[in-house]
Amino acid sequence: MIGSVHAVPGAPTLSQLEKGDTIVQVNGTPVKNWNQVAELLTSSKGDTVAIATNRARVQVPVGGAGQPTGADLLAAIDVKLPPVIGDVIPETPAAKAGLQAGDSIATIGGAPINDWSDLLERVSASAGVDLRFEVVRAGKVLPFTLRPESTSVKDAVTKQPRVVGRIGAVNASVTAREPMPFGRSLSVAVEETWGVGGRIVDVVHRLITREVPLNQLGGPIAISRASVAAARNGFEDLLGLIAMLSVNVAVLNLLPIPILDGGQILLNIAEAVKGAPFSLRTREYILRVGLVLILMIFVLSTFNDLKALLSRFFAHA
Asked: Which residue range(s) make up the domain with 240?
């Protein structure tokens, strides 16, 4: 079910889709879940994409000059999700106000919130403005006041930067079990691993360019909290976290920092260009620099963990 539809340059027919519509076919292929919608949209090969819902059928030109791609169409259509918080990022308005995972947002500013798209719309348009939330927690309605932070983001559709409000809350995941042939499961696993690796590279880039503040960097305590939460949600979530951490280690190990594999590769390339190996003393100094960098990252992430831990403690005291 569609949660919201964003305007896309070059695709006016997409506006015929409406919130609440259920997508039943993409390019003539029946779809049963959002993963299938995403796969069919991003892999579209023709000049148009046909999207059929329970109410309408839309033809959208793609791939030409001034026209969107299938990935652009996917970014423009939000799936309908319940307004339930799955996690709260430390040191954000949501964390400071005391919102917790599992909270269901009932109203914002007195207006009812029916799904996550409603929440995003209200919060995004209210950067720097106090908003009154009514939250359902353990059967009780609790009031909170939050002021969304002004955050510069790249629009998923137009690719242009814009300032929106953010509170630092992530929606609860909605999943379903679906049988899959072994060969297909291997293919999906490769695609997921590649996608996670790409997102990690993007986060590292945004940390370096300061698009993501360094206080969002988590360390051992954050990993322990995530592990406990995953274990409580079930064995599958725990395995998923282990897989994600494994991909993190694999990608971060390739960073060009001396002492990591990426640094060793860079060092070997430098020696090849130089035409001779570095002296043992030079190698020792290079490795010391790498060790200091790793220790700095460890200290920073642990400091962020402790700061977030104390912040949560005083928020609930």
From this structure: 182-316
